[in-house]
Amino acid sequence: MIKKELLEKVKNQILEPQEPQFQTGFRDLDLLLASVEKSSIITIGGRPAMGKTSFAVSIMLKFLEQNKKCLFFSLRRSKGYFIKRIIPTIAEVDCSRFNRNTTVLNENEKEKISTAFEKLSKFNLTIIDDIQKIEGIKEKIEQEKPEIVFIDYLQLIDTPIKKQRNDAIEDIMLSLKEVAKDNNCTIFVLSQLSRAIESRCDKRPMLCDLRDSGAIETISDVVLFIYRDEYYTRDIVENKGRTEIIAAKNSYGSTSVLELLFRASIMKFLEPIKVYDF
């Protein structure tokens, strides 16, 4: 028999107004994730240079502004590089000017960057760049007790040499699911996709494109793909910045395609400006 307390709790969750579980800064994405449980695995997939890290950072910054505790596992780059990577996004300063040297920055840009560093210093964010093994990732999450975790990216997590790659990825995903459940935290996992996409006419990702293992699809609670048509059609001006966020799997609700804008100059995703006819 189901306990009365559990039934009451679930009933209240359904009937009583609740704050959205996720406030990502993107209205349509928040609606999509409205029923997602906190201890979920959300996979963000995309081909190289589609903007996986930028999308994750855009979401993470919104969480940090809500005083949520976040961990970011930067498996590709050092902490210093990652900080340099996100400061132009926070400051909204052209990253090409930021990355050259301070002589090209005007006083307004320098002030924005200083303010961004001050803002970053107040965030409850821990960046980890020295852990590659899944055991270390689990241990760090258990120690820090974050609300949100980002891993950039799945295929860089060390796996036992003797294991087949697909078996090793399955073990990693199961471990992440376990640690998310045990610590009641949400884990955003970035994932590479198969090169098979490049041989298709329609290069929008599908679940079968998740690289190395079908377990990524099976164990993830939500799978979001990033697709920017301008990556393949750079000469078409109308496509500039237009991004599709394809919700290919959603264990808690419907799947759909959302539209965002990507400002490459500051490596930030934004809500599109919608024009309504009356």
Written description of the protein model:
With 278 residues, the protein is α/β, with parallel strands linked by helices. The protein has a single domain (28-270), classed as 3-Layer(aba) Sandwich (Rossmann fold), CATH 3.40.50. It is built from nine helices and nine strands. It has helices at residues 4-15, 27-32, 52-65, 79-91, 95-98, 107-122, 134-144, 165-183, 215-219, and strands spanning 41-45, 70-74, 125-128, 148-152, 186-191, 222-227, 242-250, 256-263, 268-270. Strands 3-2-4-5-1-6-7-8-9 form a nine-stranded mixed β-sheet, with helices on both faces. α4 (79-91) crosses α6 and α7 (134-144) runs parallel beside α8. The longest helix has 19 residues, at 165-183.
Q: Please, how many domains?
A: 1
Question: What structural category arises from helix and sheet content?
Answer: alpha/beta
Looking at how many chains there are and whether they match, the oligomeric state comes to single chain
Number of helices: 9
Strand order of the largest sheet: 3-2-4-5-1-6-7-8-9
Terminal residue distance: 54 Å
Poorly predicted sequence stretches spanning 5 or more consecutive residues: none
Report the mean per-residue pLDDT as an integer.
87
CATH superfamily: P-loop containing nucleotide triphosphate hydrolases
How many strand segments? 9
- The SSE order reads HHEHEHHHEHEHEHEEEE
Question: Architecture, CATH level 2?
Answer: 3-Layer(aba) Sandwich
